[in-house]
């Protein structure tokens, strides 16, 4: 019982590593984009971009926490994270600046990784189920 | 004026990359350690470790946000982050489990990177000062 | 244009106040419950409760941020927050301790407030639409 | 042993309630101020205010988490929170808009509450000490 629990925790940790990485990169790109937008000569046209950058950075970091803890709700958070990443990527794509283009790329990669997450239940729950059936 | 601002933002972004990486790894190690501690047969002796893991993961992610935004308060947050990483590393070092040893290592590396941050003012403020003097 | 934007921001701010309050109370109840569970003589049966407390506290605080910023994604985050509050309330309801019963109550109230949020679009978007049609 | 632990957890929870309330209000005021600044006709002069609003909202919510969990590091986080609240209040005080004045007020009240926190050790540690001496 004790060993199986530990193994499940370890499996969840491994399974999420690509998505954790993509979320961390996306959060940093969004934070950087928000600051760079505010440093533009005229930040007014960037107001919606800045707001989405904040939203996206925050949910990316939330998703990383859920994944790193092997939460049963990690997948649901990742699906919502993907939606918000898409919205941020769409907005950033409208602007020609490097920080916006890099942010759009990071958002799209993050959305892809988030959507690739197992569709229902956590890695832990699934590992547990597959072991029980053998 | 506009270009210098943008360059400063870019410089801050680069300068922090090693510390951002160390904080992200530390946060994930802490989250993983907390979950693995809870999955132990008897989590009671791990209660303080779990509490410190939560504290440490949270401030590491806060520090990453401050650094990624090039905040003038990034250094102050990093100094406090280093203290909390040390406390978490000390606690984790008392336990023989792999998740605790890996967490202790990640905490110590993160504390080192956080202490290496410029002692006063933000990277942006410093870049600005050094440019003005040339 | 300037005045309307400001009014919309103010309207979103007011509209969310009951839900913001419920989320803040829920997050505090969850954090308190996690700590109190860890202080129990045998925290093992509380492991799932502690994990859900962490999940719930984190998404409640995320939701508050989205609402306070009047984000276009505030409603989506609140819907997911309601689901996670329900899961935490269900788990807490299984345990007789005061901290669990108080946490279950706070989670159910928070889920109710989150579900009462406008079903599509942000308060800002809706205020803008309703003004345009008059 | 079990009862004393639970009582300590409860005492920490009560002791922090005024500061938790002030931090929650401050975070909401900062988030609202950032959004309202971005909705101004010319957000350029508000760029530093927006950046400080983000910093301040984030550390206020971190502090609430530490206090609600009765963390041994709650006081250290509150002291740093007070500094950042002061910086945000100073910047907001330079601007005549209602959202800035309300934010400055919330920041100053929050800084006051954060500084009123017990100077060393956590509420839990102190409760434990005072009980041992009687």
Element layout with pairings:
The structure is a homotetramer of 134-residue chains.
Chain A: H1 2-15, H2 17-38, H3 47-68, H4 74-92, H5 98-115, H6 123-132
Helix pairs in contact in A: 1-6, 2-3, 2-5, 3-4, 4-5
Descriptive key words:
134 residues; 6 helices; elongated; Substrate Binding Domain Of Dnak, Chain:A, Domain 2; disordered C terminus; homotetramer
Structure, explained:
The structure is a homotetramer of 134-residue chains. Chain A has 134 residues and is mostly helical. Chain A has one domain: Up-down Bundle (Substrate Binding Domain Of Dnak, Chain:A, Domain 2), CATH 1.20.1270. Helices cover 78% and strands 0% of the residues of chain A. Chain A contains six helices and no strands. In chain A, helix 2 (17-38) runs antiparallel to helix 3 (47-68), helix 2 runs antiparallel to helix 5 (98-115) and helix 3 runs antiparallel to helix 4 (74-92). The longest helix of chain A is centred in the N-terminal third of the chain and has 22 residues, at 17-38. Chain A starts with a helix and ends with a helix. Mean pLDDT of chain A is 86; it is low at 120-134. Chains in contact: A-B, A-C, A-D, B-C, B-D, C-D. Chains A and D meet through helix 2 and helix 3 of A and helix 2 and helix 3 of D.
């Amino acid at each position: 019982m004790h060993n199986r629990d530990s193994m499940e925790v370890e499996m969840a940790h491994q399974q999420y590593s690509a998505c954790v990485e993509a979320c961390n990169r996306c959060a940093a790109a969004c934070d950087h984009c928000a600051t760079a937008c505010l440093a533009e000569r005229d930040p007014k046209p960037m107001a919606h971009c800045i707001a989405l950058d904040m939203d996206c950075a925050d949910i990316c970091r939330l998703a990383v926490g859920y994944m790193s803890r092997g939460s049963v709700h990690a997948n649901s958070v990742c699906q919502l994270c993907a939606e918000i990443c898409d919205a941020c990527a769409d907005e950033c794509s409208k602007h020609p600046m490097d920080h916006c283009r890099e942010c759009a790329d990071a958002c799209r990669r993050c959305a892809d990784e988030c959507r690739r997450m197992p569709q229902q239940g956590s890695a832990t729950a699934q590992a547990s189920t597959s072991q029980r059936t053998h």
